[in-house]
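Quick entry, no commentary yet.
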Amino acid sequence: MGFNAFDDFMFSFGPIFFFIVFALVIGFFIVVIVKSIGQWSKNNNSPRLTVPAHVVTKRAHTSGGSGDSSASTWYYATFQVESGDRMELSVSAKEYGMLAEGDIGMLAFQGTRYLGFERK
């Protein structure tokens, strides 16, 4: 029994295909890590600001949770500052629960990093 043309092709192309997929997956993880480190560094080099703002809206994003896997939830709040600019910042579950749409106060942040909100 010999190989047919398709088996011959797959036998020679299979390792190359596997390497390409492996390289793409590794490349994706490297890009995500580099972008995360860049954002972290940019936040660290940004000034810490405290400005008057109000809470425009809140949202939660949940993923996973099918079958036996657990769900993960990320919480966000959108703030509007006096200039009219809006920014959506990631907040902890505790902060998310304490914020209400329409709250007015002082927003503390550093780049895209939420530091706190003190209601007036």
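second:
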Amino acid sequence: MKQKPIVIGVTGGSASGKTSVSRAIFDQFSGHSLLLLAQDAYYKKSDLPFEQRRKINYDNPLAFDTPLLHDQLEALIEGHAIDRPVYDYKIHNRAEEVVHMEPKDVIIVEGILILADEELRKLMDIKVYVDTDDDIRVIRRIRRDMRERGRSLDDIIDQYLKTVKPSYHQFIEPTKRYADIVVPEGGHNAVAIDLLTTKIRAILAARGLSE
């Protein structure tokens, strides 16, 4: 009988280093089958005009289709494949295509608000909060959004001050209390990554999923 996969939730503020932590886990467990399920893919589809979509607060729990994320994660845990949605940041809307994903031994769920939902938290074996200073995160966000998402500096700063920063303190930072492990400075914290991977190896071994 196939063993239940291990589900790791990695959260933190925008540009906190969640991807670096997730990548560190991938590198440590290359002998296993892994997949990354990004919460960003589950932003709700909107019928609003483009200019109105640009003004949506994307750091609010209401911006996500959390029931769909929950159901698809649960399906993966039960051994079923899913067709994950795709979100297009340039049009601020869900794309038409989907990504087919097969279940794996290790599932990393990454996103700013994955710990805000109790039912989603129940599906996770390990919950990680990446804790990074606000100034560092905003600099990273500016670089990323200008390079990867074609946004202007004024647009990025305006959004950060109006929605990103207030929402972080209202919705995201409070979820730190649900974390099993808090990782300061993201993927640069070698000691925290080592402790995390040691715990993951122990769970995998207990479930007969060792390399």
